[in-house]
């Protein structure tokens, strides 16, 4: 096992440790330097900060999807507060005329407290988004929640056609999940996946996962279903010798009006720019809030050399260089 792989696996465990998250939130001497590292990847701590970041990205020609960060809410009142915050996100998008959708974790709005509570809050948000002409994307979480998330998404799709879902290519189950989700309305966002999983349920990062993502991407693109190809993979996007994803679309004669490419803030934006220049709709995932612990850990786990950048960013807060 390489040191980078081992570091990535440990970061995935840290990301899911709620005690560590609470400790970071309660200790300013640790919170503030790590926040400085997290700001590279997020829209800010407040909705107003995120709106300003979204405006700048829109001006650069990128759509965004705004997510009020949070996961694994264990208190019903906090789940209701999160639901109200997402309603404020939708209001801000409408008032500021942002080119934006809304992304959320179902566990943030009550799913792990009670599945029915999560579903009811999701219905409130889906209806508000539909009234505002917005798309609502449901993010995927740990593998132990995959079944429930897909069940709630299916129920939502019985009423709403503006609710999308995220699938993770690293899970062995995803080809079957994709076939099921293709029968529903709403965009399908394909990601590689970053959560820690028990042995035997997922592919490790590397050639096997890259091949799996490519196969799922090809199936999704040829289906002509609305989709978001959410990856930073240079083998799929870099222009030399040729962007594989773009080449595949061209060779298959696939119309590009239902395709978008999505990337994370602060990660290889030049690749997103290249896809925009090919004529595709492009989007930046833009989370905000104070619960950035899990998100930061997952970003570092996806590309362990980012740990060096995070250390530098945190040290700049401390030493002002």
What's the short version?
The chain is α/β, with parallel strands linked by helices and 321 residues long.
Average pLDDT over all residues: 87
Residue share in helices? 40-55%
C-alpha-based Rg, rounded: 19 Å
The main sheet comes to:
8 strands, parallel, barrel
Q: In terms of quaternary structure, what is this?
A: single chain
Q: N-to-C SSE series?
A: HHHHEHEHEHEHEHEHHEHEHH
Number of helices: 14
Q: Note poorly predicted spans.
A: none
Q: Spatial order of the strands in the main sheet?
A: 1-2-3-4-5-6-7-8
Structural category: alpha/beta
End-to-end separation: 35 Å
Tell me, briefly, the overall form.
Answer: globular
The number of distinct β-strands equals 8
As a percent range, the share of strand residues is 5-15%
What does it look like?
The protein is of the alpha/beta class and 321 residues long. The chain is built from 14 helices and 8 strands. The protein has helices at residues 3-15, 18-26, 28-38, 47-59, 76-95, 115-131, 146-157, 174-181, 207-222, 234-237, 244-252, 269-277, 293-302, 306-319; strands at residues 63-68, 100-104, 136-138, 163-168, 188-191, 227-230, 259-264, 281-288. An 8-stranded parallel barrel has the order 1-2-3-4-5-6-7-8, surrounded by 7 helices. Helix 5 (76-95) links the parallel strand 1 (63-68) and strand 2. Helix 1 (3-15) runs antiparallel to helix 13. The longest helix is centred in the first third of the chain and has 20 residues, at 76-95. The chain is globular, with a radius of gyration of 19 Å.
